[in-house]
Amino acid sequence: MPTGTLEVIIAEGRRLKDKDTVGQSDPYVEIYLHHKYKQRTTTIQNTNDPVWNERFTFNLHPKDDTIHFDVYDSDVGGKDAIGNGKVKLKNVFDDGKFDDWVKLPAHLGLSNHGDIHVIMTFTPS
């Protein structure tokens, strides 16, 4: 895998699964290549269709091949998982960019917990 810089924009979410019994979710996204180093968006209050438009930068190393997106509902007592998505970085390397909706499949992939719009740009070092 090539090395370089990966710019990631978490643009928005749509139809995120509601984890709250009253009201709507307070979603945010954790983005990471490795579990030890995560970045996250701000929390958007009371919506299942959030707009973040937040930019993150990752330095890619030769072993990096997948970027992960964990979407949570922020609650007073902690966080509830809404869904997890991932993108193989080969999709970004081939064109130098990626602009698509990433699905958040439910357990076993039988249904969908929503989508997040992700825009990525790769700059080789």
Automatic annotation (TrEMBL):
InterPro entries named among the record's database cross-references: C2_dom (IPR000008), C2_domain_sf (IPR035892)
Source taxon at top rank: Eukaryota
Record keywords, A-Z: Calcium, Metal-binding
Pfam families: C2
UniProt name for this protein: C2 domain-containing protein
Residue ranges constituting the C2 domain according to the UniProt record: 1-102
Membrane-spanning parts: none
GO MF annotations, alphabetized: calcium ion binding
Keyword Metal-binding attached: yes
Record Gene3D superfamilies: C2 domain
Coiled-coil region(s): none
Example of a GO cellular component annotation carried by this entry: membrane
